[in-house]
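Job type: complex structure
Entries:
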Amino acid sequence: MNAPTDIAHLAPDIRLRDVPEALLTALRERFGAQCSTAQAVREQHGRDESAFVSVPPPAAVVFAESTKDVADAVALAAAHEVPVIPFGVGSSLEGHLLAVQGGISIDVSRMNRVLSVNADDLTVTVQPGVTRRQLNEEIKSTGLFFPIDPGADASIGGMTATRASGTNAVRYGTMRENVLALEVVTASGEVIRTGTRARKSSAGYDLTRLFVGSEGTLGVVTEITLRIYPLPEAVSAAICSFPSIEAAVRTTIEIIQLGVPIARVELIDAHSVRAVNRHSKLTLREEPMLLMEFHGSPASVQEQAETVQELATGHGGNAFEWAATPEERTRLWTARHNAYFAAVQSRPGCRVITTDTCVPISRLADAMLDSVSEAEASGIPYFLVGHVGDGNFHVGYLIDPDDAGERMRAEDLNHRLVARALAVGGTCTGEHGVGLHKMGFLLDEAGSGAVDMMRTIKRALDPKNIMNPGKIFALD
Amino acid sequence: MNAPTDIAHLAPDIRLRDVPEALLTALRERFGAQCSTAQAVREQHGRDESAFVSVPPPAAVVFAESTKDVADAVALAAAHEVPVIPFGVGSSLEGHLLAVQGGISIDVSRMNRVLSVNADDLTVTVQPGVTRRQLNEEIKSTGLFFPIDPGADASIGGMTATRASGTNAVRYGTMRENVLALEVVTASGEVIRTGTRARKSSAGYDLTRLFVGSEGTLGVVTEITLRIYPLPEAVSAAICSFPSIEAAVRTTIEIIQLGVPIARVELIDAHSVRAVNRHSKLTLREEPMLLMEFHGSPASVQEQAETVQELATGHGGNAFEWAATPEERTRLWTARHNAYFAAVQSRPGCRVITTDTCVPISRLADAMLDSVSEAEASGIPYFLVGHVGDGNFHVGYLIDPDDAGERMRAEDLNHRLVARALAVGGTCTGEHGVGLHKMGFLLDEAGSGAVDMMRTIKRALDPKNIMNPGKIFALD
C-alpha cells in the first residue's frame, strides 16, 4: 500500500477537456429548455456529498425525460468527444458527480416513472430517477416492498451505478442480487437491454452485473428491473445497548454464524446515538447500540428475537426495547437513516470523509476496534455506524475543510483502516463505490492485473473515454 | 426468431485451426506425463453430455495440477494462437467441451483440493476440480454445507463457468450469488484475482460475475471462493402427487408469491417418475409430483410445511408423504438427481436434447403446458423436470441420434418452447449455459446490441480468440 503522503485523492486530478461551443449549440437546439447552462444549475450538478470541493462544474446540464433524450445527448457528446456524467439525486459520497474532466451532466431525475409492477412475479421496472422511497410508496398497495435502503433517499439509477446496499442487505442482498435487468445507453448512444425478468439465467456474459457498480463509466442506465418482496407477515424491531462496541459486534458475529435470518442488524456508536438524539429529539441511551429487525411469520419472528436476545444478554446487552407498532419502527429507522446527517450537523461547516470497508465477519471486531482506538486518539470528531451483519461499517471523520492538516490526518486514519481491512480479506468499499476517493485503494485491493482488466473493458466499451471519465481508475 | 430450418446448431460449425507440432513438443517438454495425445484420452475430452457427435477431439490434453500449470499451458497455447478448452468432469449439456476449432484441453480434475475452510465466515476456497459432492463431504464436520447442486456431480469450476444452480436455488441462489471471489488465468497466461472474502463490495467492475457464466471463453478459473451455509437446525422433505402438471405448478406459484422460504420445490412429470421408479427401484405414484424440502428451526419448518400442504390440497394434491429421516431424504433427492440419467436409460442408445428455459413465475404454467402438449403430440419420447420455484424447467427429448428427421422435429419443439419463454420475458437458459446449442437463442433473447457488447468484451480480453472459441456467440 502506498504511503499516506502519496494519497492521490487528497485533491482530485482535474484535467479539463474542451467542450466546444458547437456541442452546446447542438444541445440547445435538440433540448431547448431541457438544457441549462445557468451557473447555479451547473454548480448544483458539479458536486455531491463527498469531501471534495473546488472542481469546476459541468458546462451544461441536460434534463432527460426519456431514453431517447439520454441516447441523443450521449450521441452528441460522443460526436464531440465530450465527457458525460449521469446525475440522479446527487447523494454520492465518493465524488462520482464531479466533472474532473469537464463535460456535461445528464440529469435523469425527471425520468421518475414506475413503468410496470409485476406483483405476481415479484418484479418491478422503473426509470432511473425513481427514488427508493418513491418506489416503496408506489408499490405499497400491492403488499410488496423493495428492501435496498442506502441512508439517503437515493435514485434507483444511482444505487445501480454504485452497487448500493443498506440496512436490509444482510437478509435481502444488495443491488447486485436485486437488479434483474437493465436498459442502458452505451457510450456510442445505442440502446441495449441486459437480462430478462427470469429469476436466474445462464445466457451469456452477465452484462447486468457488469453495469451494476460501474459508476456511470460504461453507459447510462435508463431502465431497471428489480426484485421485490412480499411484506413479511410479521415484523418486529428492537434496540439493545451494549457496554462496548466489541460486545455489540461479538453478538452480531454469533447471530450470523448461527444462521439466524435476521433482516437488519445495525450498529451505531455512542457518538452517533448522541447526534441522533439531538437531531431526532430522542432519548436513546448514549452507548453503543444494535438496532435490529426480524421478518417472518409471527412464530418465526418470536423465535429469532428470543435467540438474539439470549446472545445479546451473553455479551452484556441490556435495555432490550421493542418497537412494536409500525410508527415506532418507522421512527427508529428514520433515526438510523438520519445518523449520517445528524452527525454532520454536530460539527457546523464540516465535510465528512467516510470509510466503507467490509470484512469477513470473523474479523469485524478486530478491524473495527483498532480503527476506533485510532480515531479516538486523533482528536478528530468522528462517528461510527455499521451494517455489521454484512461486516460493513463506516467511520465518518468530521473535518474542517479549510484545515489541510486535519484532512491529511483523517486521510491517514482512513488509509490505516483500509489497510487493515484488506489484510484480512476485506474490501475498501462495501457499498459506496470507488469514485475519486478510493482509486488508490482499489489498486491495493484488486491488484494491477485485475484493474488492468477493468481498464481494458472500459477502453473497449468506451473508446473515447467519455462516460464519467476519471472515476474508479486512471486510464493513463 | 429465425425459422427452425435455420437452426445453426443442428450441426456445430467446425473450423479447425492449426495445432503446430512445435506446440505439442513444447507441451510434452513442459508437462511430461501430464500431457497426453493418446486417442482415447483426447476422445474422452472432446465430448460431453450434449447431443452433439462427430466433432474431432482436441489435439492434446494437459492434466494441470496447479495454477502455474494452467498459466504455462495457456501461455504456450497463446504463443501459438491455439484454442484452449478447460475440462472439469465433462458433464456439460450444451457442447461446451467440444473442440470445434481444434486446440488443446486443459483438464483441471487433479486440481481437487479444498484450500481453506473459513467456517466462522461461512466461506470456503477450492480448486476448480473439486466436485460439489466432494466439497460437501469435506466440510461436513463443520456443520456447514454448499447448496448448489446441478444434477451431475459437476466440478465447482464447471459450475462457475456455466453459472449453474440446481434444486436449492429457490432459497440459496445460484453460482451468481454464491461465488465471492476467483483466481483466473487470463488469455495471455497471467494470473489475476477478482473479489475478496467480504460478503459485498462496490470495488470497481464486477469481474467475478463477468467470469461466472463466461463458459471458459475469457479465461480459466483456478480458484473459487464460495459462500457456505449453516446446516439448518431442522429439515423436512415431502413429496406430493397431483392430478396434473398444471395443479402442481399452480401450487408452486402460490408458494413463491406468498413468500414461503421453501428450500427446494421440484416438479417431475409422470414420465420422469416412471423412469426414476425403474432406475432407483422405487414405487412412487406415476403422476406429476412435487418434491419439496423445508429448512429452518423446527417451528418454522412445521409452519412452512403446513402452509404448503394447505396450498397443495387446494389444487388436488394428494398422498403428501414425509421423508423424516436423513436416509429417506437422501434416497428421495438421489432419485431426483438421477431423473435425467434414468430418463436417458429409458430409451437405449438415445441422445438428449435438453431445454432449459426460465420464465417469470406467473407465466410458468402457460409456458410449460403448451410445451407438454406439443411434446405429447410429436410422438418423440420426452420427460420433464423443473426447478419450478425459480420458473426453470427442462424438457428432455430422447432422440435417436441417427434419425435426422427426429432430431429436426425435436429441435423444432425446442425452438417453439424457447420462443414462448422469450415472449413472456424469460431466458433460453436458466442454468446450463449457451455453449453451442443456444447461440441462436441468445441472439433472439439478448438482441444484437447486447451480443455485440459481449463480443467486444471477448475481443478485448482474448484478442487471439483462443479461450474456448466458438461458444456462446460466433465472432465472425
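Summary: DSSP finds 16 helices and 18 strands in chain A. Residues 1-9 of chain A have pLDDT under 50 and may be disordered.
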